[in-house]
Structure prediction request, 317 residues.
Amino acid sequence: MKTLYIVIPMFNEEEVIDETTKRLRIKVNDLIKKKIISKDSKVMYVNDGSKDKTWEKIMQINKEDKLFTGISLSRNKGHQNALVAGLLTARNYADVVISMDADLQDDINAIDEMLEKYHNGCDIVYGVRSARKKDTFFKKVTAEGFYKFMKLMGVDIVYNHADYRLTSKRVLDEFSNFKEVNLFLRGIFPLIGFKTDVVYYERAERFAGTSKYPLKKMLNFAWDGITSFSVKPLRFICVLGFLILFISIIIMIYAFIRKVTGNNVEGWTFITISIWFLGGLQMLSLGIVGEYIGKVYNETKQRPRYIIEDNLLETKI
Prediction:
């Protein structure tokens, strides 16, 4: 039997952790009882520098039930880095790892089908939302637009998949070779390859607490994904530059003809608008180029993506 670790990043999740623990205890023990996974399997909570009592609760849960363990990062490093910390730690103990969110929106019953596909030879199984019935109109439109736009930008991404996925140990071994600091895991795992499949599930409403991904963070996340996996924005600037050059040549020829024929070239308003338009376009272009330069700058520093302060798996009893 294979050892399963379920990795769950947590940031200020004291309101939901007890219910998450309750449900996962039932699910994992049932899988162990059915001999689908090894009795050495665990649920690993990753404390991402929480300011509330999340880490205290994780330690207490670990004392009461060794099915649960955890690691704590030295400071808040963001969801993607916390998830990487959990995945790369879990691979040292597990044969297969499943990552999911702490808010109980991911259907834990989909784990059974994920494991079935894993035993049938899949190294990566993506949890994919079957519908967005519980989303607001704005959330649905922006989320689906995000996936479509990423595809348009040339990013290989699984439609309607977040970070609910199963990965085998050999996938995580290969993933450990990806040293980039600007993380977008939804784009990285499809690059690894191996046999993959999907499991569809209905995403529930958040059990308690508030979302850790407000609109501002979602927009930043989307922008990070685009600039980390696509150079199309840079190519767009180049194409736009040629287009403006072509238009300016036409305007220059038109102005020259008007001058030669004795007509005064009118258009103070047009000239003013053109100057402001080109100025704004140049600033936007510099901003996009600067974003890529900033990412290169962050990568060249090679700072650690996370620092683990405590690891309950290494705690001597």
